[in-house]
Amino acid sequence: MPLDFDRIRAAHERVRSYIKRTPVLTSSRLDEACGAHLFFKCENFQKIGAFKARGATNAVFALDDATAKRGVATHSSGNHGTALARAAKLRGIPAHIVMPKNSSKVKVRAVESYGAQLVFCQPTQQAREAACADVIAKTGAALIHSFENEDVMAGQGTAVVELLEVPLPQNRCARKSK
Fold first, then answer.
1. DSSP 46-71
2. Is 27 part of the annotated catalytic residue set?
3. pLDDT at residue 169 in the model
4. % of the chain residues with pLDDT over 90
5. Is residue 176 part of a domain?
6. Which of 89, 90, 92, 154 could form a disulfide with 11 if both were Cys (CB 3.0 to 4.6 A apart)?
7. From CA 144, how far away is CA 55, in angstroms rounded?
8. Does residue 21 lie in a domain region?
9. Over the chain, what is the mean pLDDT?
10. 77 labelled catalytic
């Protein structure tokens, strides 16, 4: 199924009860400085503090029951791993997160707080991918890649659905006249 706006809307329906509807803020000072209307979708207020919660949640809840039962896995040094751990906990399935051994303690604790199984590896892309492949081979978990997964992309796109629902000025696309 191609990634299109209908798929993003379906993702929004799937995740809306699990994510926070984040505010859209404006700044008249910045508008004046750039001569346009700017809108800031504040995903820093999202669950786990990042838009990654949207994508991971959609990907986890899009899995069929048999696949989900085996759990999910990814490699991540931070936000995607935390988001996947949270989404798996919400669905009641195992999560396996591969993290470089030099990951920040704050990020490690965040992943642990959602009950995920952590595997540490050397801090290289090759080591991360190899460790994740090993976890998947041993557990049968489904790989939920942080950006090479259309369900993740569709979930992250749900921020746009909310942005488009915000009433904007009539000339939202036009530059301000001087």
1. SGGGSTHHHHHHHHHHHS-HHHHHT-
2. no
3. 61
4. 89
5. no
6. 154
7. 10
8. yes
9. 93
10. yes
Q: How far is CA 16 from CA 57, 84, 119, 178, in A?
A: 10, 16, 30, 40
Total domains in the fold of the chain? 1
Name the catalytic one among 52, 103, 107, 146: 52
Rounded Cα distance between 123 and 168, Å, is 44
Q: For position 109, what pLDDT does the model report?
A: 97
Catalytic residue, chosen from 17, 47, 76, 77, is 77
| pLDDT score, position 174 | 47
- Does pLDDT of 176 surpass 90? no
Its domain, for residue 28, covers 5-164
Does residue 178 sit within a domain? no
pTM of the model: 0.91
d(CA 83, CA 61): 13
DSSP tag of 147: S
| Whole-number Å distance between alpha carbons of 14 and 7 | 10
What CATH number is attached to the domain comprising 151?
A: 3.40.50.1100
